[in-house]
Amino acid sequence: MTNETTRQLTDDLIALLDTADRLPGAGELRARSHGLLSAGPGMAAVDVGCGAGRAVAELAERGVKAVGVDRSEQVIAVARSRWPEADFRVAGAYELPLADCAVDAYRADKLFHELAEPERALAEARRVLTPGGRIALIGQDWDTLVVDSDEPALTRTLVHARADLTAGPRAARRYRNLLLEAGFVDVTVEVHTGVFTGAAMLPLLTGLAEGARSTGAITHEQTERWVADQQARAEADRLFLALPMFLAAATTPR
To answer: Which has the closest alpha carbon to 226: 215, 250, 210?
Structure first.
């Protein structure tokens, strides 16, 4: 992969994350996760898969000593440029650059569906969390996208085909059991469903269809037809997408 290609992929990812951060309800969901972590002055926290670093900056505003971790050097460079006073480090979820019992809170947003071994990530979370520390996981179940369409069978096919491109498309529905099996206690799960009816979600829907096409599950003609239908719906104020986001929280045993 050339440097130019890497830069373009990073730019595309940051643009996607920025769009997600600006969606209605996104800020409230982040704030809810901070609240479930009991984030406040004097605490230490790690945000794993931190992306461009917005949550790290929000935690710092609450008086938390927050560390942002992401495996992409390019993404971390963007985060450092946006929040130069914050602490960002290049690392993956399986090997965090932190000592044992180093943080009071662990947060991961839109990360666990990318992990082939979520159990390993949670074992690492247990290692770095203090006794009584809090964890919050946020993510979507990739099989659970509700899209209105003139072709519901095709929509089901492309949603499931796109889901299978991720390492753990159904990780969010497993949050509770994963946390319990990792030894966490006081596990809670919430669902926050965003309903979107505007053209802002067209890039997500187009990406959904293109991803399905890349697997061979749908044809080029079906992709173009489905995307055209969604574009027409957006123009007529008839687009409908419901996106459930799962938020799980738990505590490490004392």
So the answer is: 210
Distances (CA, A) of 165 to 136, 181, 210, 215: 25, 26, 11, 8
* Contact between 56 and 68 (Cβ < 8 Å): yes
d(CA 23, CA 201): 9
User: One-letter amino acid identity for 250?
Assistant: A
HSE-CB at 86 with a 13 A cutoff on CA atoms is 31
Tell me how far apart the alpha carbons of residues 145 and 156 are, in angstroms, rounded to a whole number. 9
By residue count, the chain amounts to 254
Structure-block tokens of residue 21: 């951060």
Quote the CA–CA distance of 172 and 10 in Å, as a whole number: 25
pLDDT in tens, the chain (254 residues): 556 655 666 677 777 777 777 777 889 999 999 999 999 999 999 999 999 999 999 999 999 999 999 999 999 999 999 999 999 999 999 999 999 999 999 999 999 999 999 999 999 999 999 999 999 999 999 999 999 999 999 999 999 999 999 999 999 999 999 999 999 999 999 999 999 998 988 988 999 999 999 999 999 999 999 999 999 999 999 999 999 999 999 999 99
* Residue indicated by tokens 């830069």: 7
What is the DSSP-derived secondary structure letter of residue 1? -
Going by C-alpha positions, the residue among 139, 142, 9 that lies closest to residue 73 is 9
Place of tokens 């130019």: 4
Burial of 28 (0-12, 13-18, 19+ CB in 10 A): exposed
**Contacts with 20 (C-beta within 8 Å, 6 or more apart), sequence order:** 26, 110
Instruction: Count the neighbouring beta carbons within 10 Å of the beta carbon of residue 236.
Output: 8
The answer, as to whether pTM is greater than 0.90, is yes
